[in-house]
Amino acid sequence: MKSTYSPDILNCLANLSSDEVFTSPELANRMLDLLPQELFRSSKTRFLDPCSKSGVFLREIAKRLLSGLENQIPDLQQRIDHIMTKQVFGIACTDLTAEMSRRTLYCTKQANGKYSVSTVFRDTQGNLCYMRCTHTWVNGKCKHCGANRAQYDRIETIESYAYPFIHKNINEIFQNMQFDVIIGNPPYQMSDGGGTGSSAMPIYQLFVQQAKKLNPCYLSMIIPARWYAGGKGLDDFRSEMLNDNRIKYLVDYFDSAECFPGIDLSGGVCYFLWDRKYRGQCEVTTHRHGETATLIRPLLEKNSDTFVRFNEAVTIRRKTLEKFQSLENKVSARKPFGDIVPKEKGDIKVYAWPENGFINRNEIRQNNAIVDKYKVCIAKAYGERGDFPYLVLGKPFIAEPKSCCTETYLVLDAFDNNVKAENMISYVKTKFFRFLVLLKKNTQNAPRGVYQFVPIQDFSHPWTDEMLYKKYGLDENEIAFIESMIRPME
Questions:
Q1: What is the largest distance, in Å, between two alpha-carbon atoms of the chain?
Q2: 291-325 residue pLDDT tens
Q3: pLDDT band, very low/low/confident/very high, at 11 (cuts 50, 70, 90)
Q4: 168, 200 contact by CB (below 8 A)
Q5: Cα–Cα distances in Å, from 387 out to 237, 255, 390, 392, 434?
Q6: What are the tens digits of pLDDT across the range 172-206?
Q7: What b/e string do you get for 432-446 counting C-beta neighbours within 10 Å, with b at 16 or more?
Q8: Which of 191, 401, 416, 438 has the most neighbouring CB atoms within 10 Å?
Q9: Which long-range contacts (CB under 8 A, 24 or more apart) does 110-116 make?
C-alpha cells in the first residue's frame, strides 16, 4: 500500500544558528496547551507573535481558532477571514522570515496574493508585518538592544538585526491595539564585539520585558535557561522573573536537544506562562534525559538569589540550609593572585595552563597571605557536552607552599597543613559537593558564584558521600537522585 505520509515542512526546517532557533509545531502546541483553551473559542481574543520566524505559532493558533469558532461563524471563508484579520498578528524578525511566516499563515508570501487563504487583505503584509528599523547608537552601542555599532551599522541591503518589537513603539506597528496573548520564540543573542557563544550578549530578556510592558492577559515565551543563575547583563532580569508571582507555569529542559534537536544551547532552555491576574506559586516541570518531574513551589527559594533547577533538588537544598555557611565566601575571585605571567625562573611556582612556570614573589599583587599555605585549586572552567551522568568540575589539586596560580584556576580554600587540604579534596570529589555546584553551574564556566549552595565542612577529617547524606538527613529518593546525576571522580 502506498504511503500517504506528508511531513510538515516546519518540522524540516534546519536551524540557522543558536542565535535564532526555529520552533517545531509540537513544541509550539505544548506552549499553547498552557493557555486557557476558552481563548480559542472567543472571536475577540487577539494573539501576537512579536518575533515570528517561521509563522508556526500563528498557524497553530489559527488552527485552534478555526475549530473553536465553528459554531459562532459557520461559514468557513468568513471564519478564516475573521481570524486572519481580527485575531492573529505577527511581527517578523527579518524580511526573509516575514515572507516565510506569511507563507505559513496565509499560504502565500503576499497576504493579498492570488492563493492567500484570506480574501479581504488589500496589502501584501496583512497582519504579519516587518519594517526595517535602525539602531540608535550611543557611545558605540544601540540604546535599545546593546548591539555593537562596529558590527551592526550596516547598509540597507544587509540585515541589521534591529528587531522591530524592541526598537519601535507597538503603536507604530499596530495602532492602538491591545493583545490578549503574546507568545513566541525570540532571538537569543547578538555579538557585542567581545565574543561568541556564552560570552555573546543576550537579548531574549528584552523581548520578555517589552511584552510585559504591553500588559497582555497572558505571555508565553521559550528562552535560554541561562538566566536562572548567570549570564551577561541578566542580573536584573533574573531578579525580576524570580520575584514575579504571576508566572504560573515554568517548563525547564536541562538539555536543549530535547527541545531543539541538533542545537546546542549551553544551560538548556525553558518556556513559561505569565498570567496577569495570577498570584501564587509556580508549577515547575523539569525534563531531563527523558524523565519528567512536576512540583508547585516558589521560583525563589529561601536564602537564594537564583533558581533551584531540579524539582528533586529543592528538598536537598532546604536540608543543607541548617547552620549554613557558604563555601562561596571562601573561594577566590577570578585571577586569584592578580595578573601574573609565568616565567622559566623565579622563587614561586605558578600553576598555569598549558604549562606551569615560576614568578618572583614581589610580582604577586593579590593574596600574598596564602602563597605559603596549602591551597586547594580547581579549574575555573570545565565543560561537558551531553556526557551524562556529570562530573561537573575538573579534578581539584593541592598547590603547595611557595606557589600560586594563574586565572585558569580558582583557589577554593587555603590551609596551614596538608592534612586539611587533603580532607577538603575528599569533599570536593563527593557527588554531594558536585551536585550542589551543578544547581548553579549552567555553562562550562565555574566562577566563585557556582559554589553558593555548597556548605563549608569541618576539615579535621575526610568526607564521603555516605557521611554527608547522613549529616543532612537525605532520604532514599534524594540520595538516588544525586547518584543518578553525578558520576564518581576517580
A1: 88
A2: 899 999 999 988 788 899 899 999 999 999 877 89
A3: low
A4: no
A5: 30, 11, 6, 10, 15
A6: 888 888 999 999 999 998 866 554 444 578 999 99
A7: bbbbbbbbbbbbbbb
A8: 438
A9: none
Mean confidence (pLDDT) of the chain: 91
- Please state the three-class secondary structure of the chain as a single string: CCCCCCCCHHHHCCCCCCCCCCCCHHHHHHHHHCCCHHHHHCCCCCEEEEEECCCHHHHHHHHHHHHHCCCCCCCHHHHHHHHHHHCEEEEECCHHHHHHHHHHHHCCCCCCCCCCCCCCCCCCCCCEECCCCCCCEECCEECCCCCEHHHHCCCCCCCCCCCHHHHCCHHHHCCCCCCCEEEECCCCEECCCCCCHHHCEECHHHHHHHHHHCCCCEEEEEEEHHHHCCCCCCHHHHHHHHCCCCEEEEEEECCHHHCCCCCCCCCCEEEEEEECCCCCCEEEEEEECCEEEEEEECCCCCCCCCCCCCHHHHHHHHHCCCCCCEHHHCCCCCCCCCCCCCECCCCEEEECCCCCEEECHHHCCCCHHHCCCEEEEEECECCCCCCCCECCCCCCEEECCCEEECCCEEEEEEECCHHHHHHHHHHHCCHHHHHHHHCCCCCCECCHHHHCCCECCCCCCCCCHHHHHHHCCCCHHHHHHHHHHECCCC
Q: What is the pLDDT of residues 39-96, one digit of tens each?
A: 999 999 999 999 999 999 999 999 999 999 999 999 999 999 999 999 999 999 988 8
CB 324 within 8 A of CB 303: yes
Q: Which residues contact 262 (CB under 8 A, 6 or more apart)?
A: 14, 15
Q: How far apart are the C-alpha atoms of 55 and 109, rounded to whole Å?
A: 11
CATH architecture, domain defined by 9-316: 3-Layer(aba) Sandwich (3.40)
* Domain definitions of the chain by residue range: 9-316, 327-485
> Distance between CA atoms of 61 and 49, rounded to whole angstroms?
10
Grid look-up 496565509 returns: 106
Average pLDDT over residues 409-415: 98
The answer to whether residue 14 scores a pLDDT higher than 50 is no
Which amino acid, 371? V
pTM more than 0.85 = yes
Lowest-confidence region among 147-161, 285-299, 333-347 = 147-161
